[in-house]
Amino acid sequence: MIAAHDLAVTESPVVAADTAGLEATLSRVVRLADEHVSALDSCMRYMAAHSWVGGGAVRFSQELAEQRIRMQRGFQSAADEIAERIRAQGGHARSPSLSTSIAVMSAAVPDGFAGMNVEAMTRLVQDLDRAARYLPEAAHRLSAELLTACVPSGPERQVADAGAWAAKQVLDLRRRLTILQRQETAPGLTSPAMAAFGLFGGFAPDTAGAAKALTLAATGDQKALALLLTFQRTGKDPTLAARVNAWWHLLDKQTQEHLIATAPNLIGGLNGLPAATRDRANRGYLTAQHTEITQRLEQLRRSAEAAKAEIATLELKLRQIDEVNKSLALGERDGRPPAFLLSIGLGGLGRTAISFGDPDTTDSVITSVPGTGTKLEGIYGDVMRASTLWKQADSSEDQKKIASIAWFEYEAPQLDLSGFSADRSVAAPYVASEGSKSLASFTDGLNAAHKVGVDPRFTVLGHSYGSLVVGYAARRRARTFADQLILVGSPGVGVSTARELGVDQVWVGEAPQDPVADLGHVPASAEKALGGGMSAVFPDLDGPFGTDPSDFSFGARQFVVQGGQQNVIDYNFSSHSSYWNNDSSSLVNLGYLINGQYDRVIEIKPPKPTPIPQPSPTPPAPSPPAEVLTAMPSPSPQPSPTPPGG
């Protein structure tokens, strides 16, 4: 509070009549300031006591402090201007200091605190709301006093601006608090994605402009949604999925439903959205596409001038839809959990991601990446493998929930007879490098969308050429890509050692008769002579795809795979697909690995080094007889290495 004696006005009989009105105005302005200059003080105290920390809290605190200072300066400036006018009239006036000081008590951060103390922030918002209501009124009264005193306007705008800022923050903070309060976890806790990009405003670098695109996407802008998918395919921003996750949860239910209804193919493809949301959007899109394509084909087939190319393209899409529907039908059969359609793209080779079990709520998530020759039209076999992995992992650990995903969102090389182009060859790194961008973004989404309070185990399995895609993706997200990698039938992952992948656990399984896996044994020089592309890019690697992962020098741990005698090479391509065979050692070990049951894995240990035999010591030569020694001449004297005194 400002004491009355701080306002000093010395009157003169000569000027009393002229200054009396100004003095009364000054007195009213000081009282007005006394009522409002501390309007933002309590909010400052809450922030100084760590009611909100991290991310946007820093900027909010800075803006709060700036608005408080500007508001107080507005009152101070108004009082100073009126006092100056009194002095110009010949009177004597002095305006008091209209600023306040804040004493901050240190406060302990509550247990389990993860960014925002809901109770304290609720009180802060209430005080901020009060300031938002009273400061505009004070600014209006201040403007009237300045007009009466014939003082130029301006200070009242600083007070009004502080009130407008407070009103805007109230809306934003109340929304954040609502999100926090409806979390299923303890009050004050939230997911990392929400904490970083929803509650704290997402102040991380955003050079691509994802934040702006998300703002537009919320209005139903489909171009903005498509742009987000473009950003996603580049794999450059590891925070994008977390931004998308926070954005989605901050949308109201009506907006979410509108986006799903009007842009299901775009919403269904966004990494970071809940799996259940993506599944619903993608299934709706698939059904709509089936109806639309069927109708279009009927029209084309009745037309004599129908384009054969268009008919062929539409028929391919129908076959792809049928294959996906057949794969989804595996869900909730024979003990399997529901199937979730996490991604779908029709035409060409197509793309999809299908999960058995909700990856957002499970204890363990296994993502399988197939290799050469994979097409959406024949994806059923890869989906069956994912379901087999789910069943095996579930049977080996019935206390945990498992999600097993078949992921195919890259242009896998095809073994056709048309030859290989430089950018499509199975021997070139381009395809794997491009595919790894989408895979890295997909795993970002798995992390961002996973339910709070569960610490899942993320495993990525790469088969055949898919292991090269996995290797590239792991290096794009070193230390965050997965908890473990499993490489089966792998010709290499583009590195010389497992350590370079940036994943704690790397496991390798290789059937002895698998010819594809043994491509890793081909020297880089021989591969180059055959016209391959890997040696041109990685001239220092041991083989066309790097060091063979099954070589113990690579540094990965190896598990036993069913498939004949280890030392007998009798190549057959069926071995390349034997890793999922029922009751095989390979499948049993895969189940244990998915659950982290390493003590149960039948592991192949590296051979103990063979000790190098040490040569027997040479017996000393017999000493010559004494008479020989006396007959030998004395050795010639040798010069000293350093001259005397040197």
Automatic annotation (TrEMBL):
<feature type="compositionally biased region" description="Pro residues">
    <location>
        <begin position="607"/>
        <end position="625"/>
    </location>
</feature>
<dbReference type="InterPro" id="IPR029058">
    <property type="entry name" value="AB_hydrolase_fold"/>
</dbReference>
<feature type="region of interest" description="Disordered">
    <location>
        <begin position="604"/>
        <end position="646"/>
    </location>
</feature>
<dbReference type="Pfam" id="PF06259">
    <property type="entry name" value="Abhydrolase_8"/>
</dbReference>
<keyword id="KW-0175">Coiled coil</keyword>
<protein>
    <recommendedName>
        <fullName>DUF1023 domain-containing protein</fullName>
    </recommendedName>
</protein>
<feature type="domain" description="DUF1023">
    <location>
        <begin position="350"/>
        <end position="522"/>
    </location>
</feature>
<dbReference type="InterPro" id="IPR010427">
    <property type="entry name" value="DUF1023"/>
</dbReference>
<feature type="coiled-coil region">
    <location>
        <begin position="290"/>
        <end position="324"/>
    </location>
</feature>
<feature type="compositionally biased region" description="Pro residues">
    <location>
        <begin position="634"/>
        <end position="646"/>
    </location>
</feature>
